[in-house]
């Protein structure tokens, strides 16, 4: 896979998981560069296919700690109107709420105060680095946060359970779905009896997708990513991840 939008490797250390943003123990963070590339491909597809360049509502039904969603808000705030996140695990939902709070200036202020207290108490170099990163993120966000406010919402739901998802999201409102579904030793589908949970999730998503929507799913090669109500627009492999981008038909 060759990068089309993020062609050069950049310094994402201020956005690193576990520094300012909270990490979910035992779950590797989604790579920042890849997240940015996927989001920009989805946004470009909306513009090409639907002639729609409006700010999007972004949703992840398997959000984990919502790290990649929070990072995307900092990198592409001008293109995102709202971020919605859900997960079946209570711990993940709690961390997702904390990470998505960091999209706002007030959330960053609270995080800066929290890290400052830790730095004063323990005097660790890692706390000083985190504090500098938090201050940089705040400085970078300050100029654009007022012009491009991003609202966030997190709820607990099984991605394959239609009632749980549709009761929390307005019908035909989601423009981009970007999700890294459970796979490997660190995560797995929970509470679902479906033989093909991705297909079940895609069926549920039909109820919330807008008329100008794109769905990007990252998974391993073993999982089947297809549904007769979707058309595959693009697919690529990077490392152990396979990324499939679909549009509803």
Description:
This protein is of the alpha/beta class. It has 7 helices and 7 strands. Strands 3-2-1-4-5-7-6 form a 7-stranded mixed beta sheet, with helices on one face. α1 (32-50) packs across α2 (67-76) and α4 runs antiparallel to α5. The mean pLDDT is 94.
Biggest β-sheet strands, sense, barrel: 7 strands, mixed
Estimated helix fraction: 25-40%
Q: What letter string, H or E per element, gives the SSE order?
A: HEHEHHHEHEHEEE
Spans of at least 5 consecutive residues whose pLDDT stays below 50 are none
The beta-strand count equals 7
Mean pLDDT: 94
Helix-strand blueprint:
Layout: H1 32-50, E1 56-60, H2 67-76, E2 80-87, H3 90-101, H4 105-122, H5 125-145, E3 151-156, H6 162-166, E4 174-180, H7 197-205, E5 209-219, E6 230-238, E7 241-248
Parallel strand pairs: 1-2, 1-4, 2-3, 4-5
Antiparallel strand pairs: 5-7, 6-7
What are the main properties of this structure?
22% strand, 249 residues
Summarize the structure.
With 249 residues, the chain is of the alpha/beta class. The protein is built from seven helices and seven strands.
